[in-house]
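Illustration: Cobalamin biosynthesis protein CobD.
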Amino acid sequence: MSLVLAAFAGVILDGLLGEPRRWHPLVAFGGLAQRIERRFNRGGNGWRSHGVTAWCLAVLPPTLLALLLARLPYVGWLVEVLALYAALGLRSLGEHAQPVAQALRLGDLPAARQRVGYMVSRQTAELDSAGVARAGTESVLENGSDAVFAALFWFLVAGAPGVVLYRLSNTLDAMWGYRNERFERFGWAAAKIDDVLNYLPARLVALTYALLGRTALALRCWQRQAPQWDSPNAGPVMAAGAGALGVALGGAAIYHGELHVRPDLGEGPAPGARDIERALNLVYGGVLLWLALLLPGSLYLA
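Result:
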């Protein structure tokens, strides 16, 4: 089975089943990562070298295992499909975002704040409806890149070991990649490796969003606004996504009690409930576009 056909199977499986409700491998990995961090970053005193060692211990053994299992006769193809299924978050993205849009549409702001709080790390208790919609739209655009497109990209490049390497690295960045006293040094490797792995996928995602939305505006926002963003990969994705939707994102947000004044993204009115769904449609349409572009080549090689 070619990787493209395996990718189709993995996407279909994700759509049918969603995330595993029990025994999710990323949950188990998160527990392992916590134990490794306690060992190598005791008291928040770990150095960069400790972070590199911890990253290797957490990521490389599962990646090697995926490589070996994917090469097994008869069942290797199943390992490929299951690895992508476990790494994808396409259906889960909709399951988190749709209730936010629905609550906003019904005028239930407390419920909307609660549901969007499951998606973002910023404080949501005092957000108005536009702030909730902005947070939800930004989360869909960024997580669509990280949890969907980048996983699909690395699967198509390197199969099961590629997607395992990427997804575990991305998870460690989410756990260790903070710029605070505890993780400033220890989490440096996790953050930098995730930046490298996401560099090309993020730009392909930005282009995908642009092609599926207001193309000229998306490309202009990408060029002008992305360099102002503090993340080299989130900037292009979110600027292009905001431009593609024709809405205004970015601006001030409170993270862990601290106000962050972020650059403006996109052009147009403040987002609403419908724009969360429009962002989801960008992600869904982008996945279909990627697979449609790859399918003819896979059939030729089959």
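Reading the tokens back as a structure: The longest strand covers residues 258-265.
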